[in-house]
Every structure is written in structure tokens, then in C-alpha cells.
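Worked example 2:
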Amino acid sequence: MVRVVEQDTLLRPGVRHRASRLRGLAISKPDLARKRLVELAANEARRLPRTLPTADLARCVSLEVFYVFHLDAGIRSSFITAEAYRRYVDAAPSPTTVLLAELSASPILFPAVHSWLVPLRDIAGLDGRSISTALRLGYSPPLVVFILSLSKLLAAWITVRTPRAVDAVPKEHKRWDPSGLPDGRTELIDADIPRSTLGSIEWKP
């Protein structure tokens, strides 16, 4: 992760230099080095400017992620595995209706470290496999696509920016690329995303 930060030339030189100085510590005391890198990344992330969104946004997750992090806990207890829940959703007349009805009522839809978003127009008309390839998700369909309404984002005073290497540090996104997504698609990130911004959910097999 030090290397990821070093290679992001759009970060301030001082930030990259401080990350480089953790290389030695990463060998002798890796846990301490990681703690300091996470702190450095968090401090820099807070300084980066954000702007208001200009279009509907989307976050795409695997069914497994939905099952573990977004499904209502009471409903999740009725299914032994994510695969069992997948079969249940896939067999429903309207999978999107099921997903929306069984979504957790947590007021935070996506914590800051998971608030990686794309403009909805960038994935419009794509099936699950095409979305996974376009966004370099690293997992196979089915996907669950959360659609965040522009009007609701603005009402919640959500602001966004282009991700930098410091955003990849908390969850160790080692494959993060400073050049962004393929084919000119836009990647965005924010702080915590409230549930109130959710417009709809789509099921992408």
C-alpha cells in the first residue's frame, strides 16, 4: 500500500514522501506501519476538495456483499448462506422489489470506506458481467446496483470527488489504478452515504 500511495503523482509530494518513510517500519513493525499509513491517508483524504454531484450515481456490489452488509439481519438469519439467498431472490417474480423490501434500515447505506460510486449513465444498459468488467469489480454476477437519486443526493448535501490512493489504503485496494477506470468511466467517492439518498435498486444477473 505504500507503493500505491507513492505512485499517485496527483497527491502532494509531502504525503508520498511520508508514506515512503514507512517502508523500513513496514519490515520491522508492520502493524504499526499500517496504522500510521491509515492515519496519514485519513488526514489527507479529509483535505481533498469535493463538489456537488451532477447526475444520478450508482454503487454496484455482489450478492454476497448485499447478503452480509445490506440485508436486514432478521431476514438474513432465515438463510444459511448467501447462495441460498441468491436462489431465493433469483426465483422471485421481481428481484428488485425483494431486495428493496429486505434492505437493512440502517441510516448509513455505505460507510465512507465503501462509498465508491460511478455515474449511473456510465453503466446504463450493461448486464452484470459487463458491469463487473467495466468497473474492475473482481467478482461475478449477479450484482446488486444501488441507484442514488441526484435530487436526494443534493438534498442530503452529499459531495463527491475523484478517488486518490489514500482512499485505497483503509481496505487495502492494491489493484487501485491512479489512471482511473477503463474507457473513460468516472469513479467517485464521498464520506458516509445516508440511506435517504437511495432512489432504487437493480438486480443484474
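The mean pLDDT is 92. The longest helix spans residues 30-47.
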